[in-house]
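We modelled the chain as a single entity of 131 amino acids. Its sequence is:
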Amino acid sequence: MVNENPDLFHSTERVLLVSNFLGSLLTGQYMSIDYSDGAGMNLLDIFEKKWIGQIGGFYNGVDVCEKLGDPKPTLQEADEDAATISDYFVSKYGFNEECKVFRCTGDNPATLVGMSCKEDDLILSLGTSDV
């Protein structure tokens, strides 16, 4: 997109993954990409916990990571990063106005959490992401 349609890229406000798009849609505000999902994009320095663009990585002179927002830890206190469901879903579909939406993650990280792995277990994902 940077090469093929640079004007469109520069007018793009935010780039979302499917996981944080869902949370953003439900709350009406941008929700952050979590570290595990960001690592699967190959744009997150997993040691610095910053987008590669924030530590000097550019694509053809453009910092593509400026459109991603700040990455956040995968696991936090339950209410620390929760947002309230948007008024749209309250009025249109009858959601409780106090309904909380928590940061979402990708399918592979979520699956891994649900597997109750023990020390020395090996998990191999044959999906389409790098997790």
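As a brief sanity check on the tokenised model: Strands lie at 44-45, 50-51, 83-84, 100-101. The chain has five helices and four strands.
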